[in-house]
Write a structure and sequence with these properties.
By secondary structure, this protein is α/β, with parallel strands linked by helices. It contains 10 helices and 11 strands.
């Protein structure tokens, strides 16, 4: 856990944000910033305070009036539309234990029959199973996992829950009849594909209904940031990453991996979706 982030309570003007993600109409982000401080997260280049000396993962802004705003705005959501919790923060990061914004927002959405998707890296999501079970037909819950290797995980996701905890959360949710999915992304050479096939088998056994795969987002200059992390933690992989992310092999790697995944998952019990 990221033990000592600086927390600031703020009031937001709106809580429903129109989404550019396919299949998602609105997103709700109860927090700005994220204690998990994942090194590959593109949100660190988007948040508005990035240019005034605030460090990613160390500063969290809490939208204390989030439920109040949702009460005002929920009429905008049509019966067929989908809301995601969340797109540029983790709705179940550690500060949620104190503020419970996500819990109250989720309860409001489900009580109003809003189709809701949760995406998190935290096993804290299982705290809210009681709410989920009241209207599970309108809910899907996903956890992000990029690798089974805890050593790799710690380098890229230093303050997030362990892979074991996330798999246990998915299993508990599935066992309670909640539709679950796993978001495997960004897929990173060796980091992801070294344990990918075992991970897929584990997820099938757990009862996950869908796997969503995504590539690395390099639009925000993350390739340079990743190379620094690789050089520091896994110098033997540096040449490979330099070739993939700064050379001409970027799409070649992802297209090849996509084909391998499709072949491996043929006949499996879950749906496979690619974001690229």
């Amino acid at each position: 856990m990221n033990e000592f982030p600086q927390i600031k309570e703020i009031k937001c003007r709106t809580i429903l944000s129109k989404s550019g993600i396919e299949g998602i109409d609105y997103t709700i982000n109860p927090y700005i910033g994220c204690q998990h401080a994942c090194r590959y997260c593109y949100a660190q280049y988007m948040w508005p305070w990035k240019n005034i000396g605030l460090k990613w993962g160390k500063h969290i802004f809490v939208k204390v009036n989030a439920l109040e705003r949702l009460n005002t705005e929920i009429h905008r959501i049509k019966p067929w539309q989908v809301v995601e919790l969340s797109s540029v923060t983790d709705p179940y990061q550690p500060i949620e234990r104190k503020y419970q914004l996500t819990r109250r927002i989720l309860e409001k959405l489900l009580n109003n029959n809003v189709k809701t998707i949760i995406l998190t890296k935290s096993n804290l999501v299982t705290r809210d199973i009681d709410i989920m079970l009241e209207n599970s037909r309108n809910l899907q819950v996903g956890l992000t996992i990029i690798t089974l290797d805890e050593h790799f995980k710690r380098a890229f996701e230093p303050y997030s829950p362990s892979v074991k905890e996330r798999l246990s959360a998915l299993e508990k949710l599935s066992r309670n009849g909640i539709v679950t999915f796993c978001f495997i992304g960004p897929m990173l050479p060796v980091v992801t594909d070294e344990s990918l096939w075992t991970l897929i088998d584990v997820l099938e056994n757990i009862g996950v209904k869908m796997l969503i795969f995504d590539r690395m987002n390099v639009k925000w200059g993350l390739n340079k940031h990743l190379l620094e992390i690789i050089g520091k933690n896994f110098p033997d992989l540096y040449e490979l990453y330099e070739k993939v992310f700064t050379g001409g092999d970027y799409w070649k790697y992802y297209k090849s991996l996509k084909n391998d995944i499709l072949n491996f998952c043929e006949g499996k019990s879950f749906k496979v979706v690619f974001c690229y």
